[in-house]
Amino acid sequence: MTSTESGTTYPSYEALLERAGQLAGTSWGLFPDAGRGTPSFIQPGSVRDAASCVRTGAVFGLDYPADAFDPGMSLKRRAPRHTIYSAHPAHRDDYLDGYYLQGSSQIDGLRHRRADDVGFYNGTPDGDIREGTAALGIQVWAEQPIVGRGVLVDVDGYCRDQGTPIDHAAGQPLGLKLIRAAAEAQSLALRPGDILMIHTGWCEWFLALSAGEKESQRDSRRASGIEQSAEFVAWAWDNRVAVIAADNFAVECLPPVPASPFRDTAPNDHGMMHQQFLAKLGLPLGELWQLGPLSRHMKAAGSWDALVTVKPLNITGATGSPANATAVT
């Protein structure tokens, strides 16, 4: 059990697994604000401490353009169509058509995934997850943005230094042992409420491909990312991580590894961890973040933390949103 600045006590992941019935392995009912999830780990003191991470004054936008991934890995999402119009010679206005809120750099909301075995986060009824309803909607993090200490684990740089660059074309799984080794090489220690950013180099690799190569990679359904394991889920929860973000398609690897322990509980996702994080723990996931420039700056500066803000679009009931993430070092 660990306590936060407010005095709220949270059990270990092992203890979560021992909760009764549908509560087993979940954080349902543990957070004061039921719809906020693990960003609740970020306390006022955490935000004040995050401000001390600003040393150079350098500012980094962590979102790619809305149309960057066209074609992308998604079989459904397409780039939005941007139209500018005018009512008279001195006026300009514009709008978007076909705007997929998770088509580029994004944050997954808690209604993005339903756990196959127990349902939506906090036992929210399926009927409450529809357009125009607020339950588990992204607006919770828009009305009170996620602001805290962001830490970047440069797995891409670590693997290159070891002479074993990540094989993005093969969809290489990145295990917890590797991620921890990279963090230790950076002398990086997690604190409760951290926004964990994992730099894999996947986005820059993918965006450098030709259109035909991107389509071939999409059709292969392979993307490098975190290896599915109960150990990684436990590590993230026990370290009180507020958000997990990565510069890749799905945070975790695709396809899920054959040994994924979640194949029985998440059959519709073929054993992915999305249901564990979003529907059971209330832990938001950031995907397709632009981490390359930030990683290179941090390496040169010799520090791996920053003040990070995440301000989704204020759309009631949205399942996800552009992250609108910013890092200040």
From TrEMBL:
InterPro entries: KFase/CYL (IPR007325), KFase_sf (IPR037175). GO terms for molecular function: arylformamidase activity. GO terms for biological process: L-tryptophan catabolic process to kynurenine. This is Cyclase.
